[in-house]
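ok so dumb question maybe but i'm new to this and my supervisor (M.) told me to 'just get the structure for Acetyltransferase NATA1-like' and walked off. so i did the thing. is this what she meant?? sequence i used:
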Amino acid sequence: MAAAAPPPPPTGAPITLPESDPSGNTLFTRIRLATVYDVPHIHKLIHEMAVFERLAHLCEATPESLANTLFPPNPPPPFTSFTVFLLELSYTPFPPTPQNEQFNPILKSIHLELPIEDPEREAFRSKAIDVNVLGNDVIVGGFVLFFPNYSTFLAKPGLYIEDIFVRECYRRKGLGKILLSAVVSQAAKMGYGRVEWVVLDWNVNAITFYEQMGAKILPEWRICRLTGDALQAYAHTNT
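this is what came out, is it supposed to look like this??
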């Protein structure tokens, strides 16, 4: 996705999620900076993403390795290194959050015809530091992890999205657009030149979605990667 420092807790009266809304179902969303307390959920999301992408055999991340690399002691400011946005969901409005010089959580809402059945609801209850204010039924629905890169052609920094993922039961509701827009908006506000990411060639739905968001697919470019033994073979090349 360390860059993500925990935001200050919001104020407001404790709230709980209703079982249903006879006038319709509004799903309230919040994008916030992740903290080290969110690592168990980030790890679960990464594993689910690896399964979805048919790459679970390559997934070596553990909660410990994620905590050590994403949220080390004395982490750099957000957006200067690895940053993780979490997507949180509730059927009750999130209370207003105080202004934060690092990042103000993004609050939006979407209308649903019916409530979403979440079979993993218990496993994805939010670890937000303001959980006592929000109640216990705030659910983590997805994440995006990104970090700075640089364009020599533009002579400007940019943001590279390593992973963006929405849990299966919450897909096709506009939540991926909310997550991606949060990163792109941040890059634009910072005066960056571009935002880049990759997509699997068989994931037609994702490709269509990204094109609808205005992204250009660049088939003439190929990913080059050194990892594992091939990478370690260079460890002592210049010693």
